[in-house]
Specification:
By secondary structure, the chain is mostly helical. It has four helices and no strands. Helix 2 packs antiparallel against helix 3, helix 2 packs parallel to helix 4 and helix 3 packs antiparallel against helix 4.
Length: 108
């Protein structure tokens, strides 16, 4: 039987990745909203930040794919722009995970 805590981390990480991918066109806000939703669902700071790292990799790769198809390729400038976009989004994801975990009520 699986541990319910690890299941909540996986579900929270999936929420973070999906919301971040849906809102990948808004650099900071998309990651922040995704992180807050996933962090709230997870409820603990250390697990929320761990899930944000996993979701950050998935959302970063997905965002890179979507943005590389949408932006024109001009002398490698596209790669730098996409890398900056993803780093800013992932900072928002980590901050959102921390905010979501803090806002979760502690069990009684």
């Amino acid at each position: 039987m699986s541990d319910p805590r690890s299941a909540s981390v996986v579900k929270g990480s999936m929420w973070m990745a999906i919301v971040s991918l849906v809102l990948c066109f808004v650099p900071v806000i998309g990651g922040l909203i995704g992180g807050m939703i996933g962090g709230y669902r997870i409820g603990r700071m250390n697990r929320a930040l761990l899930a944000a790292l996993g979701a950050g990799v998935v959302a970063g790769l997905g965002s890179w794919l979507l943005l590389s198809l949408a932006l024109p390729r001009v002398l490698g400038v596209t790669a730098a722009a996409i890398a900056a976009w993803i780093l800013v989004s992932e900072a928002g994801l980590l901050a959102g995970a921390a905010i979501g975990a803090i806002s979760h009520p502690a069990p009684a």
